[in-house]
Amino acid sequence: MCSDVAITVRNLSKVFPIYDKPHHRFLQMVMPGPKQRWYREFHALKDINFDVRRGETVGIVGRNGSGKSTLLQIICGTLAPTRGDAKVNGRIAALLELGTGFNPEFTGRENVILNATVLGLDKSEIDARFDAIAAFADIGEFIDQPVKNYSSGMYVRLAFAVAINVDPDILIVDEALSVGDEAFQRKCFARINAIRDNGATVLFVSHSAGTVVELCDRAILLDRGEQLVEGTPKYVVSRYHKLLYAPESRAREIREQIRAEGCGGEPVLGEDAGTRDESLPARTVDDEYFDPYLVPKSTIQYVSKGATIHDAMLTTLAGRRVNVLHAGREYVYSYRADFARSLCRVRFGMLIKSITGLELGGAISATPNEAIEVVDAGCSARVRFRFRCLLAPGVYFLNAGVVADLGEGDDFVDRHIDVAMFRVMPDSSRLATALVDFDVKPSVDLLRRVQAAGT
Ligand SMILES: Nc1ncnc2c1ncn2[C@@H]1O[C@H](COP(=O)(O)OP(=O)(O)OP(=O)(O)O)[C@@H](O)[C@H]1O
């Protein structure tokens, strides 16, 4: 293996036997034969090939079951490939899914020693680092309890503390971070950054587009065990999203499209160089655009009480339809409401929610005193909400609602939940943390420390 390559994966395939009935496993053991096979083959990885250079941080993305964890386990040597091989050059520390690495009967202290020994540290090195590992894990006296008594959060804390305190040449992280609490996750990301800055190689599995774009130099998209594409994180994440939100009927076609595009997104060319979907208008790298596959699957339409909402959409200020937005820019959320009966004191509303349903912000077209007094049957209204997209990269959902006074106060006369969705593009220049960007203007003054007299 070339000395500036940390990981080489060649023609790697993994086939799992699937037994339809529990006793078939036994029958296969006692009656294996060329004619009768008691299992079906499931191809979890199919002919995977890539290199990771020393010092690179590479993200692996893909839908559930695409083979990410299987790939990492083979690279770490905890699972054997069926064909091909994965070679690593250097000390590898891995944070794989829960359950791997620790012996549940041993205490945290014993597991730390065991793990660090497996990672190649001698006794004096382990003694020198033990306190740092325990401090990072911050699990108090649980360090002397068997790990079978740990919560999943404690387990991850300790596993991560070991993995990143042994000065690995190669760090492999499999999304396990999402188990820890937020403060701990932040501590871990800071530590991963420090390890990377010291020249280590990081291989990272994540479902979070923001994390991959933020942390990685390059990304690889796996789907159904196949390596569909590799390229810049922005490019690969955009293809991943295209696949993730594809209707089942189009998924196969979209996979083929992505595969045909091949390797993409050299940084100098910009994320979509040479791979534009011909059905979309030409755009520059940072342009917002419309992704036809970004369609909510959770839309709920309430029973109409005299008005009906249609054509909910987002556009640029110039009127171009979009749903992949640029943070910081202004957009218009609009819909049409058709009135089948006359309604009094009419107002229109909008709401933006996070993927978990958290209501982030909304607006109503008028105060109660300024509601439209009467809208006659047969009329239509075009409703527009202009807003600035002050949101973190990620996916968001939109509600739309029409309110009128039906005699007993305001009531919804039509309401659509998750009527549209949009994505905010990852932005590496972003300083804001969390979901909502308050347009904070940070400033830092470095103050020279006054030297004490005589020192
Ligand atoms: N030991 C096994 N026996 C049979 N099938 C397996 C085994 N381990 C994994 N698989 C199957 O291989 C496929 C890939 O699994 P893997 O865990 O690598 O996917 P993943 O991309 O990491 O998924 P997720 O994002 O849900 O963690 C899945 O369909 C899984 O059911």
Task: Describe the protein's architecture and organization.
By secondary structure, the chain is of the alpha+beta class. The chain folds into 2 domains: 5-242, P-loop containing nucleotide triphosphate hydrolases (Rossmann fold), CATH 3.40.50.300; 300-424, abc- transporter (atp binding component) like domain (Coagulation Factor XIII, Chain A, domain 1), CATH 2.70.50.60. It has helices spanning 22-30, 68-76, 108-118, 123-137, 152-164, 182-197, 209-215, 233-244, 248-261, and strands at residues 5-18, 40-53, 57-61, 83-88, 92-95, 170-174, 201-205, 218-223, 226-231, 300-301, 307-316, 321-322, 324-325, 330-339, 343-354, 359-364, 372-375, 380-388, 394-405, 410-424. Strand 11 (307-316) and strand 12 (321-322) form a beta hairpin. The radius of gyration is 27 Å and the shape is globular. The relative contact order is 0.10. Adenosine-5'-triphosphate binds at residues 16, 18, 42, 44, 62, 64-70. Adenosine-5'-triphosphate (ATP) binds at residues 16, 18, 42, 44, 62, 64-70.
Query: Helix count, per DSSP?
Result: 9
CATH superfamily of the largest domain: P-loop containing nucleotide triphosphate hydrolases
Shape: globular
Beginning-to-end CA distance, first to last residue? 52 Å
Question: How many distinct beta strands?
Answer: 20
Mean pLDDT: 84
Secondary structure class reads alpha+beta
Fraction of residues in H or I helices: 10-25%
- Ligands, ions, cofactors: adenosine-5'-triphosphate
Largest sheet entry: 7 strands, mixed
Low-pLDDT regions: 265-285
**Beta-strand level of the residues, as a percent range?**
25-35%
**CATH classification, class level of the largest domain:** Alpha Beta
The total number of structural domains is: 2
Helix-strand sequence:
EHEEHEEHHHEHEHEEHHEEEEEEEEEEE
GO molecular function: ABC-type transporter activity; ATP binding; ATP hydrolysis activity
Protein name: ABC transporter ATP-binding protein
Family: Belongs to the ABC transporter superfamily.
Keywords: ATP-binding, Nucleotide-binding, Transport
